[in-house]
Fold each of these.
Amino acid sequence: MNAWWTLGSFLLFTAAVAVITWCKTRREDVKSETGFFLAGRSLTWPVIAGSLLLTNLSTEQLVGLNGDAFSAGLSVMVWEVMAVLALLGMALFFLPRFLKSGIATVPQMLEIRFDRTTKLICNLIFLAAYATILLPIILYTGAQGLLGILDVRSLTGIESQTALVWLMVWVVGLIGSAYALFGGLRSVAVSDLLNGLGLLIGGFMITYFGFRLLGDGQGAVHGYDVFRTEMADRLNSIGGPDAPVPFWEIFTGVTVINFFYWCTNQQIIQRTLAARNLKEGQKGVLCCAFLKLLGPLYLVLPGMMAYYYFVVLGKSPELRSVEAYGTLVRTVLPPWLAGFFCAVMVGAILSSFNSALNSTCTLFSLDLYKGCLRRKATELEVVRSGKYFGVCFAIISMCVAPLLIGKDSIFTYLQTMNGIYFIPIFSVVLMGLLNRRVPAAAAKTALIGGCVFIALCYFVLPKWDIDLCAKWGGNYHYLGIVFVLLLALMQIWSMVAPRREVWEQQPSGDVDLTPWRFVWPVAIVIFIMIVAIYWCCGDFSVLCPAQQ
C-alpha cells in the first residue's frame, strides 16, 4: 500500500508540472530559430535562476555529493561554494561579452573571435562529449536514483535489476525528450523553475526530517545539537591531504573546472544567452549564485547525517556511500512525501537531460546543419533538423546508458572524462576574450592538442599520469597545470605570430546591454559570504598534520 501512495504522489506532482508548463508555453513560438533555441530571448531572472540551478542539480549531486559527504565530511562542499565564484565570473565578465555578440552557442563565439574551423572543432568536441559522457550518465544515474526511492520491483513485478534499469532509463529519456524536442528552451526553462522550487523544498525537507531522526523524538533542534557535537571532527570545510578535494587543489583544477562548467558549458549557459537583456541575465545568475551557497544544506549535510545514523549508531554499518542518500530518504519520509520527493528527483534528472538534449540540438542545427551542411536553409528547416537529430541522439543515449551497469564509480568516471574537454575549451574561450592578438591557429592547436594530450595521459599512459598526479599533489593540480600550459602556448603564439589585425568585438544589437546597477555590490557581498563560510567552518590545522 505504501508503494502505491508513493507512486500516486509522484504522478500527481509530475503531471502538475507538465500541465502548468504546457499552459505557460503553448502559445510560444517554437518554429523559428530564436524561439525554439533561445526562447525568443525573453527569459527573465527568476526563470534563468531556477533553470540554472536545476540543470546543474541531478542525481550526480544528490546521490554523488551526499555520498562523498558520507565518506569524507563537510569538505566536499567545495564543489558548491566554488561554483558560486564561477557564477560571479559569469555575471561580471563572460555574460556581457556573450550577449554583446548575440550568440546562441559557445562555438559561435569562437567563430566570431577566430574563424569557422575553430567553431567546427569546438562543436564536434561538445557533441562527442555529450553523446558518450553526459547524456548516458544522466540517464543511468537517474535510473539508479529512482530505483533506490521508488519500489519499482514490487510495482512492476520485474525482478531483473538490468531490466529495471532499462525501463527507468527509457521512461526518463522519453519524458525528457518530449520537453526538449517539442517545447523548445522555453518549456525546458519553465519546467526547470517549477521543479527547482520543488527540489529546494524537498531538499530542505530531507535535512529537517534528518535532524528530527537524530533528535530521537526530542525535535530537530536537539538533533542538530547531537549532530554538531558527535560529528565535530567532520564539520570542517578544509579538506586535508586525504580528502576527495584537498584544500590547495581548490585553487588549480577545481577552479578551472567550475569556471568552464558555469561560464562556457553549452548545457548550462544556454538559458543565460536567452535572457531578455543583460540586466535580467545578471540578476538571474547572481540569484543562482546565492541559492548555490545554500547547496551544502541539502547536498552535504544529509550524507553526513546518514553516516552518523547508519554507521556510527550501528543501524546499518555496511552501508555504502552510493546508497547513503536514498536510504536516508526512505528512512525519514512518509510514503506520500517520498512520492513528492521522487517526483522532484525526476524533475532534476529531466532538467539535466532535456537541457543537454536541447543544447545538443542547438549545436547541431545552428553550427553544423546551417553553418556547414545547408547554409541557405530556412528557419523552419533548421528547427526541424534539430528535432530529428535530437530524436536520434536521445535514442542512442538511451541505448548506451544501461551499458554503464557495473561501473564501480560513475562520479569518478564522469570527472575523469569531463577533464578531457573542459580544460581546452575554457582555455581557448578565456584567452580569446583576454588577448585580442591570439590567432586562430593557436586556438585550434590548443583545442585539439589539449584534448589529445589529456586523453593520452588518461588512457594511453595511465601509469605516467598517476605518477605525475602523485608528484604534483593530485589530479586537479595536473588539470590546472595543463590549463596554464595551454594559456602559455597561446600567449607565446600571439607574441611570435600574432593576428594581423587586433580583434574588436562588435555589438549585435539583439538585446539591451545596460548592466544591472547593483551587480557589483551584490557580487561583492556574495564573495564576502564565500570567504566567511570557509573561515567560520574551517579548521586549517588539517593542512599541517605534523602539528596535530
Note: Confidence is low (pLDDT under 50) at residues 29-33, 463-473.
Amino acid sequence: MSVVPMKRVQIVGLKRDRKAVLEQIQRMGVVEIESSLGEDAFFTAQDTAGAKSIFQKNCTLAEQALAILDEHAPEDKGMLASLEGRKTLTVAEYEEKVRGRDTAVTHAKQIVALQKEYAEKLADLPKLEAQKISLEPWMKYDLPLDFEGTKTSKVFVGTVQGDCSLTALYEALGDVAADAEIIGQTPQQTYLSVICGKKDAQAVAEALHKLNFAKPPASSMNPAKAIQDIEQKMEGRRKEVDDLKAKIASHADQREELQFARDYFTMRADKYEVIGGLGQSKNTFIIDGYVPVTKAEKLETSLTDRYTISVELTDPGEDEDVPVALKNNGFSAPVESVVGSYSLPGKGEIDPTFLVSLFYYFLFGMMLGDAGYGLVIALATGFCLLKFKNMEEGMRKTLTLFCFCGISTAIWGLIFGSFFGDTVTVVSGTFFGKEVSVKPLWFAPLDNPMRMLGYCFLIGLIHLFVGLGVKLYQLLKAGKVLDAIYDVVFWYMLVGGCVVYLLSMSMITEMLAIEWLVPANVANIAGIVAGIGAVGIILTGGRESKNWGKRILKGLYAFYGITSYLSDVLSYSRLLALGLATSVIASVFNKMGSMGGKNIFGVIMFILVFLVGQILNLLINLLGAYVHTNRLQFVEFFGKFYEGGGREFRPFTENTKYFKIKEDI
C-alpha cells in the first residue's frame, strides 16, 4: 500500500520535434503536463484554438457517421462485447492508419449527407399521410376541392362544426336559392357543398360563416384522384428511403476507419490543447509536469535516445500540489476505486487501500453470506476476467473486486451453512422424502441471531481500532508524539476500558449470548484505565486554547465523542441485518417454490420460482452489500483517521474510445 512518489519533470526540445515528442508522451501516458507559461517574456504561448476547432469538428463528424451506421447497419455484438476493451495497435500500425484519416473524413461527410437526405425523405411520409387523411372524408365529392364555380354560379365546399343535418343547413341558408349536399359526417364535423347563383353568393357566405364554415385543403384534382396521387408519392418516397438506407448501410465496412478517425482527431485536439499551454520560443519548446518515479528513468531514456532534447528530473517542493497515484498489489488494487470515490490521500497520509481491501472483502462476504450466491458471483466475474484479456483496466479492477467479494461470500456461506438459503434442505425434503442440510462450519445466524450480533459488534470494534491505529502511525511518523497520546491512546484507553468493563456485566453478556464473564478484578482495572482515558481526553481535548476554562469545556465536548463510538459500533449491526435478510428471503422463495408438491408440476414450479426468486434476491442484496460495505468504510473507518483531499494524477494520454496504441517504454 503506497502513494507513488512523483518527480517534477521539465522537458526542453527543438520546436521541429514538438509534434513527435508530444505524440510519444501521449502514447506513453505517464506525464501530467501543466502549463509552462509564466511571466518569462522569452517563452510565449501559441494560439491553437483554430487547429483544435478543426480537429474537434472532424471528431464530431466521425462520431455522427458512426451513430448513423449504428442506426442503419448495427454491429452484431454479443452481450459481453463491452468487456472486450479497445483494439491494440502498434506504433507502426497506428502510423499506417493515420494515412487514411482524410479518406475517413470524406466517407463521414458522405454518410452524414446521405442521412440528411434520408431524414428529409422520411419526414415527407407523415406529411403525405396527413394530406391523405384530410382528403378521405371528401371521397364522394367529384369536383376538385379548389373549384369555386362558373361565370354564373358559386360553389362553397368545406366543413362546419358538429353534426349538422341537411335540414339544419337549409334553415341556416333561409330563403336563398341554393343547392346543398352533405358529403360526409363525423361527430365533430360535417363535410358539405353548396351551389348558388353569383347574386346570392354573399348571402350564402354569411349564412355559412355563422356555422363556422372552413375551407378544405386546396386540391386541383377531385379527392379520389388526389388520394391516388398522394399514395403514388408515398410509394416513391418509401422506395427512396429504402434506397438511401441501403446506401448508408453499404458504408458499414468503413466503420473501423471511422472509429480510428474519431480517436485520431480526439488525440490531435487534446494535443493542441496542451500545446496552447506550453512555453515556446522561435526554435524551442518547454514542457513542465509530473511523472511517477517508477517511470521517470525510462521516460528520460526513451526521449533522449530519439530526439535532441533535455529532460530534467527534480523532487517537487514542499508547497507544491503534487498529484496522487496509488500502487497496490493484485489483491488490494481493485479497491483503489473505492478509496478514490471518497478521496485520495492528502499530503502526509498513507494509502489506506490495503487495509480497506482486507475489511472490504471480509465485510462484503459477511453481509451477503451465502455460498451459492458467492459461487455465482465468483464464477461469472472469473469467466469474464479469463475470457477478455484486453479488457479496460478500470473494468478489470471492478470485476476483480467483485470476484474477491464473491469468494469471500462463498466462504462465509459455508461458515454459516447457507447455500441459496435452505435450498438443499427444501429440495431433499420435498422431492426425495428425506431432509439433508448443509451443516455450518461455525453456526447459523438464523438460529442464534444475538450471538451473531455480538460478533458483529466485535468486528466493528476491531475495524474502528485499526482506523485509530492508522491515525497513531501517521502522528508518530510526523513526529507528533504527544498528539498521538492525546488523540489516540486516550481513546484506546477509554473505549477499550469501557468495553471490557461492560463484558463483566451479566446483563450484557446474556443479551449477546456470551457464555463467559470478565472477572471482577479485570473489570476494575479496565474501569480505571477508562477513567484515565476520560480524564486525559477532557484535559487535552481543547489544548489549543490557552484559557483553562475554555480548554476544559472543549475537553468535555471532546469527551462527548464517546457517543459517536457507540453509534459507530451499533452501525455494524447491519452485518447481521443484511445477512439475515439474504437467508430469510432465499428461504421464503424456496418455500414458495416447494408448494407445488412432489410431482412434475411441482418440479417445474420450483425451478421457475427458484430462478426468478434467487436472481432477484441476489441482485437486491448484492446492491445492499456493496452500498453498506462502502458506508462502513467511508463513515466509520475513514472517520477515525482519514482526511483525503489529494489530487488525482491525470497524465496526458490517449483519450480514445476504440483503439489504444502500444508504446514500448
Note: The mean pLDDT is 91.
Amino acid sequence: MEKDNKKKKIITLVISILIIIILILAISYAYFSTRLNGSDQIVKVGELELVLNETSEGITLDNAIGLSDEDGMNLTPSTFELRNNGDKAVDYTIYLDDNTIDDADTRIDDMYLKYNLNKNGADSGATLLTRTGSNPNRVLDSGTIEGGVTNTYSLNLWITDEVDGNYSGQVFSGVLRVEVSQERAMEASTVLLDNIPEDNLYDDGIDTFITGEDPNNYIWYSGKLWRAVSVNNETKTVKLVTQWSISSIPYSNGSSKFTGSYMEEWLNDTSVDGFLGNLRDHENFIVTDAKWDATMDNRSLGNITRPNGTTVVTDAVGLLNMYEYQTSYTGTTYSNGYLNNELWWWTLTPSDNSSINVIFEPGNVGHNEPASSFGVRPSVILKSSINIVGGNGSEYDPYRLDGDNDNNLSGTLLNTRYSGEYISFGLGENNLYRIVSHETEKLTKITSAEALKKSDGFVQTAFGNDITFSKNNAIGSFLNGEYLNNYVDKKQSDMIEDSTIWYLGAVGEGTSYKLAKYTDVSGKTLTSNSTSTKVGLLRLGELLAGQTDKYISNAHYWLLTPYDSSRVRDIGNSSDSYFLPVGWADYGIKPALNLKSNVIITSGDGTKENPFEIALQ
C-alpha cells in the first residue's frame, strides 16, 4: 500500500533546554528547582511558539520528604505559554519526558510524584504523575489551539506523602516536548493506514487488517478504549473492538445463532440497560446497518480463510468473528496478536449448532455452551467520514475522534457524560472510578475501576448468609459502613445519593440479562425483588460488570444478582461470570453508587490518564 507522505505533517520538537525539573530527595529535606539558560526561552514552529518563563530560583522545604496536596499546590510553579500567532487552528500535545541523569543517580519512580498543571487559570488538581502515562508518553496537555490564542500554563511537581517508599536521594529530571500537527482533521482510515508500518498490515482484497503484538491502533471513543481492527478497502470504514470486556452475559438459551440471541439484544439495546443505548451519538459515529459474518466454523487456529458469508447479520453492533481474531497475528503464535487481551470473551462464530467459539486467556480458542457467561467485547464500524483530531494511537495517547474530543468541561454536569469515562473519586490506591450509566434520571451511577485494593491484595468479604443483598448482610454492611467511613472522604460521601434502588432479580444458566432487573424478557415491568441502600454492587449485564483491564489472579468480585436460591453471580479473573454459594468463599468488592444531580466537573477530560475531578455545584 502506497502512502501519501504529503499528508503527514507532524512536527516534533524536543526542547531539551527549555525545562529541566530536578527533584532531589534526602532524609531531612526535599528540594525543587527550575533551571533555565537565560531568561525567557522561545522555540517557534511556523506561527506557533512555546515560551518558558523563568519564575524562581527554586524552593527549599526544610525537614520534609513528602508533601501534602495543599503544600504541593502552593509551591511556586514553573510557567510557560503556547502561542498561536497564525490565523489557523492547530493540534498539539505537550509531553513531560525523562531527561538524562548521571550514572551515579537513581531515578525516582513516577508513583511517588504528584503534579498540578494550571491551564488558563484552571487547575488539573493534585494528580499522580502516573496518570499522565509512562515515559515517553506522559501527556501533560493536548488539544486544539485556535489562531491568535495563547494558552498559559504553570506546573508544580512534588513528592506525595500518600505513598510510602524508600526514595531517599533519588532524582527526577524531565524535559518538555511538544508535538504539533499543522494539518488537522483527517479521516480515521487515512491516519491509521499512514501510521501503521507496512509489515503490520494484511490486505485480503476486501479489508486491510492491522496486525502485530501492540501496534498504535488505540482509539478513545465514548468513554472506552478501542482497537482499530481493519479498514474496508472500498468504503474506508473502520472496524473497532473494545480493548477490554465491557460486561459478561449468557450468549443465549442454548442456540449458537447470533440472530435472536441475548447477545445480539444486549449489544443493540438502545435503552439504558444495553450497550448501544449508552454509546455516544451512535447515529453520527457508527454504521447502524453494518454487516456481521456469523458463518459457522469449527476449525482450529491457523485457518485464516475468510468466511464465505453463509450467515450474515445486519446490526449496529456485533462481535469479532474467528477470522478477524486470527488476522491480528499472521504467524502461528496467536497469543502474540494484539487482540489477545488475556481475558475470556465471546466471538461471533458458532462452532456448531450448540457451541460458540470463545477466546481464552492464553490466546487459544475453546468451544463453549451459549448458556455460559463470558466477557463481551463489542465491535462497531466507524463511518468513513469520521476524522481523527488528536492523539498518536498509543495506549496512553489514543487517537481522538472529531466530535468526541471535548475540552474545557469545567462546570459541566456529570450527568451529561458517557459510560466508561473515568472519575477521580475515593481515597489512596482506590481513587479511580468509572461512569456506568444514568439509570436514574439526572443521577450518575459509578463504580470503582477495579475491585477495592489493600496493601497485600484485594479487600474481600463473604456475600452474606443468603442470596439477598441488603444494607444488613455481610457485603452490604461493609459498603454502607466501613466503605463510607474509610474509602471516601466527607466531601465525596456528600456527593452520593442517600438511597438507590438495587434490583435483585435472578439470572440462571442460559437466561436473559433482563431478568436481573425486570419480571420477564420484555423489559416492561421492574422486578419487585429489590432493596434500597446508599452503596451497592453492579448486577449481571450492566455495563462495566465484567470489565477488567487485565488478568489479575484472585481478583474475583461479587455481583448482587442471584443465580438461584443458594448461589450468587460473581465476576472471575478473566471477565467470566460464574456463581457461588454465598458462604463458600470471600470475594472482592466493586462498589457501585449514584452521584447526585448537582455534581459538576471541575477539570479533566474523562480518560484514564486525565480523569474528571468533580465537586458539588
Note: DSSP finds eight helices and 46 strands in the chain.
Amino acid sequence: MKDHRAFALRTVIQTAAVSILLITLTAAQESVSAKASQPENSSLRELNVQVLELRAMIERMRVENAQSRAEMRELRQELQDTRKLLAPLAVSTAPSANATLARTESKPHDTSSASFSDASESPTADLGSRVQKLEESSQLLSSKIDEQYQTKVETAAKYRARLSGIVLMNAFHNVGASDNLDLPNFAQPVAPGNPQATFGATLRQTEIGLELFGPTFAGAKSSASVQFDFGGGFPSTNNGVNFGIARIQTASVHLDWKNTSVIAGQDSLFISPLSPTSFASLAIPAFAYAGNLWGWTPQIRVEHRFELPAQQTLTLQAGILDNLDWEPPYNPFYRTAQAGEQSGQPAYAMRTAWSRTVFDHQLSFAAAGYFGRQNWSWGRNVDAWAGMADWQIPILRRLTLSGEFYRGRGVGGLGAGIGRAVLFGGDPSYASTSIRGLDSAGGWSQLKFQLTNKLELNGVFAEDNAFASDIRGFAVDADNFSTILGRNRGTLENLVYRPRSDLLFSAEFRRLRTFPIYSDASSTNQLNLAIGILF
C-alpha cells in the first residue's frame, strides 16, 4: 500500500511538471510563429523533437495512470470479496469479531465503504487521502484474516478440516437403583443396606468430532468424519470415575454425488436414524434399551435420492452391516468371532423414506427392514429379522411429533429385547441346550414444543417388550446366567434453553420402570441438569 501511495504522489508531481512544460512550450511555439519571417530551422527542429518527446512521456503517464486505476479497482474488489467471506466466519466463530464486522458493514461511516465511494464518486479528491483510506481498510481486513487463520485446522494433506464437539457437564440425582448410575438404561432393585438416593456428576459425555473434506473422485465429493467421547469405561485407579476412557463412536468415509452417496465406516444405524432429544444421555442414546434401536456399527451403504414435484424427496438406502449380537468381548486384547460373525455372512438392511418441507420443518415417513443369521455353535442357528418405521410430523409451526417403532426376533444386536437376542433352555455351554430367538416389539414417540427460538420443551414415552410367552416355561433365570427382563418402560420431560447457538442449559426428569419375568418390577427416577458449550 505504501508503494501505491508513493506512486500516486509521484504521478501528481509529474503531471504538474508536464503541465508547466506544456505551457512554456506553447508560449515558445507562439513566439516562434510570430517570428516565422525569421527562419531558424535548427531551433524549430529542436523544439519539434522536444514536443514529440513530451507527447511520448504524456502517453506513458496516461498508460501508467490507467494501470494504477485498474489495480486500485482490483484491490477494492478483493477487499469487498474478503469482507463477504469474513462475515459468515466471524458470525460463527467469534462473537466479538461478529459485532465489529457488523458495525463496519452497517454503519454509514464505514471506513472501507467510505473509501470505495469516495474513490468512485469524487474523482477530484486528493489521491493520497484516498490511498490512505484504502490502506486502513486493508489493514483492518488483514487483521480479521489473521484472526480467522488462528482458528484454522491444518491437515498434512492440506485439505480443509473442521473441528467440532461439545464440552458437557451433567449433574444428576437418582432415586432408586439402575444398571448405570449416570446413564441409567433400566431399573433394578435397591441392594439391601444401600440408600435409595444417590448424587453425582460427570463430564464423560463430552464429545470431540473432526470432519475432513477431501478431493473430488469420479465426480463425487469425498469427505470423512470421526467422533469420540469418553464413555469407554473407567481406569482402575483412585477416583477413576472422573477419568473416562476415550472411545470411537463413529468414523466414516463419504462419497457424495448430486443424488447418490456411498458411506463406509462405523456409523449409527441408518434403519433407525432418529433418537429422542436429550442432553442427559449422549454417550448412549436416550431409551436405548426401551424401544430406541441403536448401535454404532461398521457398515457399507448406498443412498439414492429422487427429487419429486412439490419439494418432495424419495430416499432409498441399502447396505450390509457387521453381524453383531450384543455380546461383550471375550478377551480385552484379542478379538474372537461373535455368533453373528460365525455365520460367515454380514447382516443386511434397507430403508425407504419420503419427505417434504412443512412449516419450515421436515415431514417424513419411512419403513426399513433387517436380516442377519447367527450361529451359536453346535449347529444352533437363529435367523434374526426386524421391521421398522420412523416418522417426523410437524403438527404446527412450533409443535412436532416424531418417533420410531419396531417388531423383530433375535435382534438384541440392535438394542432390541432390552439387549437380548436369544434365550437358552439351560446352561449355554452345553451342546444339548436348546436355543430360541427372542421375539420383541417396541418404540418411542416424542412431542417437541418450540416455546421460543431459544427455548424448547420435549416429552417422550418409550417401551420395549420382550414377549413373555417366549420366555416362560423355556428360558432359565438364575444368578449364574442372568436375570431376564420382560418389559422396560420409560418417560422423560426436559427443558432445553439455548441463549446462543453454541451455549445450552438443560433440565431433565426421567423415570424408568422395568419388569423382570420372574421377579417384581423396579423403578428409578433421575433428575439431570446439564450445561454445555458447542464448538
Note: The chain has two domains: 2-35+42-150, 161-534.
